[in-house]
């Protein structure tokens, strides 16, 4: 049904053995001990790319941004782009089985699938609350989705076995931290988050829930670590989160081709301003390579392709190699399964 790739390499293993610590700074130093997560060492760990497109437009081949980390039977979601429920179904994941959801930011491409995910989970009989973490506004996003779903939900309530209102099954958390902090732990994983630079060039007005921010996430599982950049440009905060990690699941953009494509659609857009936005608030191939190299990353998985229609993703490989000569680089496609352990 979907492709599977084994990503362990001898270099990865050798370097892994040499690493003695995975803590990422003082913010984590007081957090739960790594010993709590060693039961996951013997557990299968996979990353499944549910949606690899980027930007709030429908794509003929790639679904909207969504990722899944599976640790044994536990399932963690990073971003809920449109079509995520369908993609989870294709990956044979039962919707009520999710353990936690982590949303990187509120751009449509990362959130539009949340409502259907909540609806289908409720219909399928989820029986314990699902924690949903995200930036400021996440509580409001979940509350408003639940409100919308009540319109059809009250009809289904007459046709389904007894259950509470949809809002009862989802618990949202707003996260806005400038340094990496642990936001979630269970017996399998410890998740850290930090606000990144995705909105660094725009002036945002304060909303009822505070100022908008965008997040990057780090999952520590046993002695293995995976960072999901979400949408972001380079930043010290992202560096701190990624330091000494093993696998980087990164967005990537080509400023020239994406600027040309947007300019073609919206004639009054200023190319210079737009290109500056792409370079400062997204990851170019050079920045992905530099981040991976200075962080000691063993494997880079590319997703969320911000590229024009004629740009070939393969071009990114050579561009990254200039700064990241040795580690593995994977060009992600929808429903790719990358075996971590
Ligand atoms: Zn995006
Ligand atoms: Zn974005």
TrEMBL record:
A Pfam family assignment: Lactamase_B_2
Record organism: Kordiimonas pumila
InterPro entries: AtsA-like_MBL-fold, Metallo-B-lactamas, RibonucZ/Hydroxyglut_hydro
Keyword GTP-binding tagged: no
Name of this protein: MBL fold metallo-hydrolase
Domain of life: Bacteria
Keyword terms of this UniProt record: Hydrolase, Signal
Region forming the signal peptide: 1-29
Boundaries of every Metallo-beta-lactamase domain copy: 63-277
Keyword Hydrolase carried by entry: yes
């Amino acid at each position: 049904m979907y492709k599977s790739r084994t990503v362990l390499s001898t270099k990865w293993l050798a370097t892994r053995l040499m690493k003695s610590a995975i803590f990422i700074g003082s913010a984590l130093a007081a957090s739960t001990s790594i010993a709590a997560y060693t039961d996951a060492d013997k557990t299968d760990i996979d990353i499944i790319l549910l949606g690899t497109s980027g930007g709030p437009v429908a794509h003929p081949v790639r679904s909207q941004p969504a990722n899944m980390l599976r640790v044994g039977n536990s399932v963690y979601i990073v971003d809920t782009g449109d079509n995520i429920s369908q993609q989870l179904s294709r990956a044979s994941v039962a919707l009520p089985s999710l353990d936690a959801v982590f949303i990187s930011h509120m751009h449509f491409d990362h959130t539009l699938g949340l409502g259907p995910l909540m609806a289908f989970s409720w219909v399928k009989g989820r029986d314990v609350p699902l924690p949903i973490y995200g930036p400021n506004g996440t509580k409001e996003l979940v509350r408003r989705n639940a409100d919308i779903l009540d319109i059809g939900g009250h009809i289904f309530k007459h046709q389904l076995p007894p259950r509470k209102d949809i809002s009862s099954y989802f618990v949202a958390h707003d996260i806005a931290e400038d340094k990496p902090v642990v936001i979630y732990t269970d017996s399998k994983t410890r998740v850290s988050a930090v606000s990144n630079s995705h909105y660094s060039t725009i002036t945002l007005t304060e909303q009822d829930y505070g100022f908008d921010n965008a997040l990057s996430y780090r999952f520590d599982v046993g002695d293995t670590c995976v960072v999901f950049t979400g949408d972001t440009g380079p930043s010290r905060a992202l560096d701190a989160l990624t330091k000494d990690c093993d696998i980087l699941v990164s967005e990537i953009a080509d400023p020239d081709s994406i600027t040309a494509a947007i300019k073609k659609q919206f004639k009054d857009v200023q190319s210079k301003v737009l290109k500056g936005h792409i370079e400062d608030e997204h990851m170019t191939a050079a920045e992905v390579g530099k981040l991976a190299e200075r962080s000691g990353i063993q494997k880079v998985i590319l997703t969320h392709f911000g590229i024009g229609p004629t740009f070939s993703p393969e071009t990114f490989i050579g561009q990254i190699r200039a700064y990241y000569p040795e580690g593995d680089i994977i060009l992600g496609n929808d429903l790719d399964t990358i075996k971590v352990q």
